[in-house]
Amino acid sequence: MEYKSSFLNEAAARGFFYQSTNLETMDEYLCTKGRLAYIGFDITAKSLHVGHLIPVFLMRLFQKHGHKPVILVGGGTTKIGDPSFRNTTRPMLSDEQIADNLEGIKKCLIPFFKFGTGESDAIIVNNADWLNNLNYISFLRDIGTYFSINRMIGFESVKAKLSENNTLSFLEFNYMILQAYDFYKLFTEKGCAIQFGGQDQWGNIVCGVELIRKKTGKEVFGFTIPLLTNSDGKKMGKTASGAVWLSRDLLPAYDFWQYWRNVNDADVIKCMYLFTDIDVTEIKKMESVQGQELNELKKILADEVTAIIHGRDSLDAIHKTVENAFSGSTDLSAMTSLPKYSVEKQNLDSVSVIDIIVAAGLCASRGDAKRLLRGGGVYIDDKQINEEYKLPTDKNLLKLSCGKKKHLIVEIVE
RNA sequence: GGAGGGGUGGCCGAGCGGUCAAUGGCAGCAGACUGUAAAUCUGCCGACGGAAGUCUACGAAAGUUCGAAUCUUUCCCCCUCCA
Hints:
Layout: H1 6-14, E1 19-20, H2 23-29, E2 36-41, H3 53-64, E3 68-73, H4 95-109, E4 123-126, H5 128-131, H6 136-142, H7 149-152, H8 156-163, H9 170-173, H10 175-190, E5 194-198, H11 202-216, E6 221-225, H12 253-261, H13 268-275, H14 280-286, H15 294-310, H16 314-325, E7 340-344, H17 353-359, H18 366-374, E8 378-380, E9 383-384, E10 397-402, E11 406-413
Parallel strand pairs: 2-3, 2-5, 3-4, 5-6, 7-11
Antiparallel strand pairs: 1-6, 8-9, 8-10, 10-11
The protein binds one RNA strand through residues 165-167, 231-232, 240-241, 258, 261-268, 291-295, 298, 322, 325-326, 363, 365-368, 371-372, 374-378, 384, 387, 402-405.
């Protein structure tokens, strides 16, 4: 389908579009540059992770097409916790934790946008600014009157929670109303007439659209992104061993790059569309690539995503490390992106490989490290070692590997 | 307020006095095969210890018992039905 606005065309072509309210009018509306749209992030951790990338990249696209992204951080709503499609209640966070997380998240957002006061410069707003000081009675009279419980319990997100015998607390039930209120605030105070969100946010977004219509008689728009899953059905961006963080304090650029280098074959093209700035027509040409050659695409994908978040400068070191670490090269000094661990020469007798593995955080416990070693998962300079192995005394650099992908440079110092 | 049913390892879910560090599934880790992919097969999967073993753990606390995830009491939490 062809849209009038360049933004919708590209968003749809790249796979960002799931559903929207009044598509035609919104399309028309977006033909004028400098429109505002917002998306909200809860601040439950001190960094964004790969799961947040889809909305972030959508916003980036929005800015690319001359519009103004409004990033809403949920300093207020995080205190409530969005219950949509969750079966456990979110843990309550203290004010200090929230403030701390907020700083971290802001940092994560910086590489994606141009911030400022210009027509299409992104801004960050915090809903704590208007939610924290709400007066209960006047809020109920002013806003609560527009919400019907009958209607709210009809929303899929609520129904799901109720039918699975989970408790939906009144606190959580209010999340929807507050999110609608956010939209209302941003519309009336900043003229922001579009809200983006994940597919699971549909109900919450529609609530906002309705609230604004009832209160102001104006039409605003909601736009949702499809729930993207891996080829194996898991939510995209979720890895098993914890989230893939965007903050470099939590995850070094090298590991971030590796995450993308290792995506499933079936997901490479999808990720190209969503997470890179590569032109749609260019990606189209890549769609025919099959089999082993996909590895090349994975490298491009990894490069492009990493460049956006960690800067293009970070790629050099990563490439050098990868070329050496995965080719059996013995040039350990070239693998600068690998973590390092130092051992003093005089301690060599008392320090075992297991000690190093645990101290460097490659295994969670000594038992874990031992099992790994027994199972043949530990290598020194690419040679599998066994329990009798002693660290050599005649070298000053060693490559210690746990499995084929996790490497550590062991430095023996005087 | 009343009656009933529950709370077990990251999750789901068995066990219902010793053989239980706890079946099974999922997730995870490693090995084989490959392409740093997927699928498949094999092994591992509480902590400490070289090992024997020790410790911690079946919602919390007390108790019965030689011995408790399993029995009793109290407490906390969740669910269902009734009012």
